[in-house]
Amino acid sequence: AQKVTQAQTEISVVEKEDVTLDCVYETRDTTYYLFWYKQPPSGELVFLIRRNSFDEQNEISGRYSWNFQKSTSSFNFTITASQVVDSAVYFCALSGRGGSQGNLIFGKGTKLSVKP
Amino acid sequence: SQTIHQWPATLVQPVGSPLSLECTVEGTSNPNLYWYRQAAGRGLQLLFYSVGIGQISSEVPQNLSASRPQDRQFILSSKKLLLSDSGFYLCAWRLPSGAGYNEQFFGPGTRLTVL
To answer: Which residues contact A8 (CB under 8 A, 6 or more apart)?
Structure first.
């Protein structure tokens, strides 16, 4: 069975602090994909990144970076120099290769509050 | 580019009334379509998904139903709403199986309150 665990329910930081959101996954698939989504207060889920199981390279996009480690089944998300606009609920998700396995399995989300 | 629309944005309905939420996608063909519900302060629950016209898979048995009358139209319905149907309903699309990497793109959502 596939499962995504986001152990941090809520995190509160002060602006300019760095923050890491944890994501641990379980799957028996050898080919799978991992995702991060952001849900701001408006409600719409915004796609941030996708990684496939063959590519363990870390990725950086501006203040955002992602650390994918197959050895620990983790796909953590770090925001550097956080800003108030980063306040949102962040979801980690997993999917298998295709068919119903291609559906996303979401974690329960981590609510990030960045205070000025 | 692709866009996804949902309406209405907000809805307040009495218990026992019918429901119809609509989702349409533009700029792509034969997408996979999804309905999710998010209860207040909670995670996402997949309700239905569709890989083509008239093809609906239900993930959770309940008093809701879904239909896909056209390639890029997905409708969520209920004959009689329950209090527990309150929540934030999100529609999503993705490329057909095998055509992409499975990421889904979400609409703006409908906030439903059942009183």
So the answer is: A21, A22, A110
